Write a sequence for this structure.
């Protein structure tokens, strides 16, 4: 523990390059979304990164609307969006929709999924769903202090290998691991780390085949679409709103929007 | 168009291929992958069965026997600490802002020879109202809010919700209403926003309409002050702290009782429907980071509420000074208004001053007490009264306040009914606006605003009549 404490104070430490920008989110280079199950400490991570003092409460459902803040690291400016906590993205409640729509259409450069280390299995359900939407994911394995109290240990390397995305252990309440998290978010945003996300294994061959075929069909028609796989899944589920959107060409608009956002960032 | 047709035909073809239970299979796939990965990544525990402190605590605080007594005990303790702890700093602030600051400003005004009306407007009106708000409200808030936040951060609020859930579902309301109600104990506007966690529109409306029955920030100080002066004074000094706290707990409980009654009435009349079930997750207990919590709750709650009170108090002070110094005929405007309201005030065991104060204080409940005191001082004069121009200041905190109110003809009934009326009246303008934003309905906003007021007038009326029959 002693070495950790020394590193935290060192000028060469990652955190030394961190500037907390509070609510100032103008001219950002990257947009980072914070997702996760309820009460895993998303708002605490948010505060640790932005320097904002958004009140955190120990009860599920505290964050109802999304909250934005900024930080800058290594000359890059980031906008951080704190999303309401959700157990899944597959049902239809209002708070889930805010989270899902932002990850899908807000086009975040990196999605940080805050995960409760003491309830890994349940939290992984959401991680796997998010991996179906976007590749650029960082898993923030939070509440390690609590896990330790409950004699639970999680092998971060095994988890990272299985999920195919970086995993960073943190105790956000005590500001531990935040510097490493920033570094990894930066690396994923800038493309220094390329994620190779987990592909669902426990589904039957014909489902995988159907999803793949529809995904490539969508990609063929809508060039530059980033969440084709998710669209394919929702279409196969018979998502009425999506089918209507497809009918009156709103999907095409969405793709256009996405491309425009991409261009803006490139500029 | 062509694109979407091609995709749609492929979708129908593939849908047939994957079968109808595609969604279930997919979810199953995700769950079993999650389980497999978790098994690999979570290192086997050492096999010993560890004592689970969270479960042990939950067994006690959510038990049928101890659940409610512990809730009451915690609330009473928090209030008792607030009441006894606020006494000394309150007197000190009074001394500083009103005992010393007020005469100093008056002298300054004379030195730079300001006209009397400008001095009156600025010092007797605006300054005094702000000084009052700070002296009366800051100490109890600075103790109450951090204590409440510590309980919240520890994870106690969801247990309260758990305990109350059964009663709420009996009242035909959503169990999560217990959570939004506890948020209402901080601020009703926040409580109304928090009802977004309730999915069913019917149950959400019930939660919004009844949120005002949860005693808010702006009203706790009123309760604490009046409880101390009128109820605490009934018993010997060594008991007065406890009895005052108990009276405030009583009012808070009355609010919860009305929440249930009104929810039940709504869900059996205009807002009929089925009760939805939900799972309430009891979060782990997390020992709060003491100083951090105290700091953020001071910044987040105490100072925000205080600032709001000051902002509303300044113009209110100016208005109070103006209405008490502009004369129509022989009397000032304020005196005329108070006379006008006195008749109705008497009917419900209050008086014209209190009703006028509640009208002036619609923007913020926080300034009710300062307004009442300034108006009383102006109309009835009496001890501790300042320059006699519609202003007052006190030398010794609660004693002088009590003397002044007694001089204004207040009795135990006035105090009791003020506490009840403070619980049961229209929400502040911020909350009303929030209700409108959340419901987008003028009708339900009106209902939510007027219903508590009607209930309050009814209850205080009944108490006043019964009181006068038996005690008068």
């Amino acid at each position: 523990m002693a070495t950790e404490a020394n590193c935290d104070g060192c000028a060469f430490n990652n955190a030394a390059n961190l500037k907390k920008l509070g609510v100032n989110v103008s001219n950002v280079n990257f947009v980072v979304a914070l997702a996760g199950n309820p009460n895993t400490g998303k708002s605490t991570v948010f505060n640790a990164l932005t320097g904002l003092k958004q009140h955190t409460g120990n009860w599920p459902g505290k964050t109802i609307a999304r909250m934005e803040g900024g930080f800058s690291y290594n000359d890059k400016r980031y906008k951080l969006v704190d999303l309401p906590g959700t157990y899944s993205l597959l049902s239809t409640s209002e708070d889930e929709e805010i989270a899902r729509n932002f990850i899908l259409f807000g086009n975040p450069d990196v999605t940080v999924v805050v995960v409760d280390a003491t309830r890994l299995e349940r939290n992984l359900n959401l991680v796997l769903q998010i991996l179906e939407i976007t590749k650029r994911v960082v898993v923030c394995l939070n509440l390690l202090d609590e896990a330790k109290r409950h004699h639970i240990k999680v092998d971060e390397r095994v988890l990272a290998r299985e999920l195919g995305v970086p995993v960073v252990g943190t105790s956000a309440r005590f500001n531990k691991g935040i510097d490493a998290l920033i570094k990894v978010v930066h690396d994923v945003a800038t493309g220094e780390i390329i994620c190779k996300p987990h592909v669902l294994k426990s589904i039957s061959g014909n489902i995988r085949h159907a999803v793949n075929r529809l995904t490539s069909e969508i990609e063929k028609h809508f060039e530059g679409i980033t969440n084709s796989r998710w669209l394919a899944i929702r279409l196969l589920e018979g998502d009425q709103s999506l089918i209507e959107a497809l009918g009156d060409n709103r999907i095409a608009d969405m793709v256009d929007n996405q491309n425009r956002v991409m261009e803006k960032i490139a500029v | 168009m062509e694109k979407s047709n091609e995709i749609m035909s492929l979708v129908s073809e593939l849908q047939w291929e994957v079968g109808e239970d595609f969604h279930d299979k997919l979810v199953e796939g995700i769950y079993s992958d999650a389980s497999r990965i978790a098994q690999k990544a979570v290192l086997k525990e050492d096999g010993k069965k560890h004592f689970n402190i969270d479960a042990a605590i939950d067994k006690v605080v959510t038990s049928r026997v101890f659940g409610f007594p512990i809730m009451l005990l915690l609330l009473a303790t928090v209030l008792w600490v607030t009441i006894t702890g606020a006494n000394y700093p309150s007197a000190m602030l009074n001394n500083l802002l009103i005992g010393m600051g007020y005469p100093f400003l008056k002298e300054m005004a004379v030195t730079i020879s300001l006209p009397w009306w400008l001095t009156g407007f600025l010092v007797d009106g605006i300054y005094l109202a702000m000084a009052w708000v700070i002296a009366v409200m800051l100490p109890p808030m600075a103790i109450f809010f951090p204590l409440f936040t510590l309980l919240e951060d520890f994870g106690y609020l969801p247990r309260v919700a758990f305990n109350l859930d059964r009663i709420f579902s009996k009242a035909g309301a959503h169990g999560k209403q217990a959570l939004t109600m506890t948020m209402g104990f901080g601020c009703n506007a926040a409580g109304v926003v928090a009802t977004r966690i309730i999915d069913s529109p019917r149950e959400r409306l019930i939660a919004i309409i009844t949120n005002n029955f949860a005693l808010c920030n702006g009203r706790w100080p009123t309760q604490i002050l009046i409880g101390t002066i009128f109820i605490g004074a009934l018993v010997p000094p060594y008991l007065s702290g406890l009895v005052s706290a108990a009276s405030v707990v009583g009012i808070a409980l009355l609010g919860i009782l009305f929440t249930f009654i009104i929810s039940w009435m709504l869900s059996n009349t205009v807002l009929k429907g089925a009760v939805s079930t939900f799972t309430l997750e009891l979060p782990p207990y997390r020992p709060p980071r003491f100083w951090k919590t105290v700091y953020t709750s001071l910044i987040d709650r105490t100072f925000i509420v205080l600032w709001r009170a000051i902002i509303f108090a300044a113009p209110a002070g100016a208005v109070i000074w103006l209405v008490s110094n502009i004369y129509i005929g022989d009397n000032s405007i304020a005196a005329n208004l108070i006379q006008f309201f006195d008749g109705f005030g008497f009917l419900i065991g209050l008086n014209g001053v209190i009703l006028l104060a509640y009208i002036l204080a619609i923007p913020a409940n926080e300034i009710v007490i300062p307004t009442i005191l300034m108006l009383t001082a102006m109309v009835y004069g009496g001890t501790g009264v300042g320059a006699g121009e519609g202003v007052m200041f006190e030398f010794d905190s609660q004693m002088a306040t009590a003397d002044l109110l007694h001089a204004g003809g207040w009795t135990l009934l006035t105090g009791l009914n003020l506490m009840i009326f403070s619980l049961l009246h229209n929400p502040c303008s911020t909350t009303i606006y929030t209700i409108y934003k959340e419901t987008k309905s003028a009708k339900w906003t009106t209902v939510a605003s007027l219903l508590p007021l009607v209930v309050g007038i009814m209850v205080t009326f009944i108490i006043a009549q019964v009181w006068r029959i038996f005690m008068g």
